[in-house]
UniProtKB/TrEMBL annotation:
It comes from Magnetofaba australis IT-1. Residues 1-168 form the AAA domain. It holds the Pfam family AAA_31. This is Putative cobyrinic acid a,c-diamide synthase. SUPFAM superfamilies: P-loop containing nucleoside triphosphate hydrolases (SSF52540). The lineage of its organism: Bacteria, Pseudomonadati, Pseudomonadota, Magnetococcia, Magnetococcales. InterPro entries: AAA_dom, DNA_Partitioning_ATPase, P-loop_NTPase.
Length: 271
C-alpha cells in the first residue's frame, strides 16, 4: 500500500481539488484507492457526497474503538472509498502529542487496511505541526500543489529545510504548480523556469480554471463531469508524472497508465 499525501504549508493552493482528482484517477486505473480527508473543513468529503462525520470522532479513531470498515464510505465510483473528515480533527495535534505511539498514530490507524487498498490519498490541512510530522513519517510521496509566486517558493524552501532535518528516507517530495493563470506574467515565468532549474519540480501544471472551481457545485471530481477537457488532461499529465517518480511500473514508455493488476482474492468486501 502506497500513501500519497497532498500537502502544503499554505492554505488555498488547491490541495483538495488535487487530492480528489488524483484519487479518482488512481481508482480508474483499477487500483483499490482510499481517500482520507484529514482536514476538519471536510471539503474532500463534501466533493465526494460523503457526510463529514466519523463514528466516535477522533478519539474513537485513534483508540480504534470501532471496526475501521464501519467508518469507510463508498464514493459511488469503482475502486474508490472515503474515510471522511470529522470536526474533531481540529484537535488532531493535541491528541497526537499525548497519544501512545503518537508519532505513528495515523499509520497505525491504516495498518488493518493494508490488504484492502493499493493506494491511500491523504487530503491534508495546511500548517507545520505534529499532524504534519505524522504525515511526513507515514507517506511515500508528498505531493505539493503550489501557486507560482515568490511567497510560495519561500514557503517551499522553509518546508524543505524542515524536511531535510526530519524526513524519512523513503519520502519523495513532488512539488508542482497549481492554479496557474495565463493572464499573470509572474505565473507564466515561474511555472516555466523553476522546473527547468530545479528537477524536483514536476513539469506538469494545473491551470486556474472555472471548470475546476465547479467541483463545488457538481460535488464530483472534475474528471467525472468534464473528462475531455484540457483541465482533465492536465490532471492526467500530473498523475502520470507522479507515478513516473513513485511507481514507474504503472506508466508505459509513452507516459500512459498501465492497468493496475488486482488480486481478486484480496479484494475488499464492501458493505
Amino acid at each position: 500500500m502506497k500513501i500519497y499525501a497532498v500537502y502544503n504549508l499554505k492554505g488555498g493552493v488547491g490541495k483538495t481539488t488535487t487530492a480528489v482528482n488524483l484519487a479518482w484517477l488512481s481508482a480508474q486505473e483499477g487500483a483499490r484507492t482510499l481517500l482520507w480527508d484529514l482536514d476538519p473543513q471536510g471539503s474532500s468529503s463534501y466533493y465526494m457526497c460523503v457526510s463529514p462525520k466519523v463514528k466516535g470522532g477522533l478519539k474513537g479513531l485513534i483508540r480504534r474503538k470501532h471496526d475501521l470498515d464501519d467508518l469507510l464510505r463508498m464514493s459511488g465510483y469503482a475502486n474508490l472509498d472515503v474515510l471522511p473528515a470529522d470536526l474533531s480533527y481540529r484537535n488532531l495535534d493535541i491528541h497526537l502529542h499525548h497519544a501512545k505511539h503518537g508519532e505513528e498514530a495515523l499509520l497505525r490507524i491504516l495498518k488493518p487496511l493494508r490488504q484492502s487498498y493499493d493506494r491511500v490519498i491523504l487530503d491534508c490541512p495546511p500548517g507545520l505541526s505534529a499532524l504534519a510530522e505524522n504525515i511526513f513519517r507515514m507517506s511515500d510521496a508528498l505531493t505539493l500543489p503550489m501557486i507560482p509566486t515568490t511567497l510560495s517558493l519561500k514557503a517551499y524552501n522553509r518546508l524543505i529545510e524542515f524536511l531535510n532535518q526530519k524526513r524519512s528516507e523513503k519520502l519523495k517530495v513532488l512539488p508542482f504548480f497549481n492554479q496557474v493563470s495565463a493572464a499573470k506574467p509572474i505565473h507564466k515565468v515561474v511555472s516555466r523556469t523553476v522546473p527547468l532549474k530545479h528537477p524536483a519540480f514536476l513539469k506538469a501544471t494545473i491551470p486556474d480554471s472555472n471548470l475546476i472551481e465547479a467541483m463545488g457545485m457538481k460535488r464530483a471530481p472534475l474528471l467525472a463531469y468534464a473528462p475531455t477537457s484540457e483541465e482533465a488532461q492536465a490532471y492526467r499529465n500530473l498523475w502520470s508524472a507522479i507515478l513516473a517518480r513513485t511507481d514507474p511500473d504503472s506508466v508505459d514508455e509513452r507516459g500512459k497508465f498501465r492497468r493496475f493488476r488486482i488480486d481478486e482474492s484480496k479484494k475488499k468486501k464492501k458493505k
